[in-house]
Fold this protein.
Amino acid sequence: MHQPLPGTEIADLDTPALVVDIDMVDRNIAKMAALARAAGIALRPHAKTHKSPIFARRQVAAGAVGVCCQKVGEAEVMVAGGIDDILVTNEIVGRIKTTRLAGLARLATIRTVADNAEAVAWLGKAARAAGATIGVLVDCDIGHGRTGIADPRTAAELGQTIANTDGLRFDGLQAYHGSIQHVSGWAQRRAAAEAANAKLAAFRAAFAEARLATPIVSGAGTGTFEFQARSGYTEWQCGSYIFMDREYYNAGGEDGGPYAPFEQALSVLTTVMSLPSEDRFVVDAGLKTMSLDGGVPELRDLPGWKFGFGGDEHGKVARTGPGAARPKLGDKIHLLPGHGDTTINMHDEYFVVSRGRLVAIWPVAARGKNR
């Protein structure tokens, strides 16, 4: 299998290749860490974005308290890679998954979330069998309409159940609203976040009335963290800021332009493989290289052209404006994916570059860890 050596120029990489500019990444990591410190909030980045203990260790070194994961499999990869404080931000139910999670809790600080008393019982049984303690947060629905308890008093009752279950430690609540992260327009996104903050206040009041301390209130994301800085959260779960995919970038900033507090560090490098007409060319990246859920990728540094999926291994690029410069056969094109998380999950490796040259190849270690 061909593998380029460190020092190889980006233009000499074989394609398709998932390319990460590590200088941009490190600036993004440092900036978010500084924003969290200034707000007095802990940062627990979501590792479902990068799926790599290498990136997670850089985030922890910059001040993150640990990471979030969505699946036990991701958490297993992170613990094996040296991350010792993990919140699994998803409901973990059934004997197999709770047993695996309890095994991890013997090796690291492990927390998860729950919205059902039966799930709490499963977690407690697994923790006791493993001789471990699992921290549990009540998953509160503040408008997302996915998992979580929508009624504050019911949520507080589940908190009491957790606190009374041997093997578990009640650690607080999770209040994440994913569907507002990409709301188009700065003012609209702020209004949506403030509405979610008001619902969070009702949950916090219910827990206080039940005399349940909530040392951790976890939530927020790359699109809303700045609107959820002084609203009761103790930690942010932001993940996509590390690469800043196009969905976030195009959501809209305060000045009416792009939302660009962080740099777009991730791209898919592809090669022009066919020139069938003056108004169309074809690249070697298609449905097996980039996800669809964030829409079509944008071409970096090539105005006047628009990408369209042309099948598993083909991307069709069409001219959208007169005078747009047409690339040559064999030219390399950077595509900016709409959704980084799902695009990354289609690749085995990161091609890590700095100042135009390859510096390392890192595995996407938690790729496909969906269980």
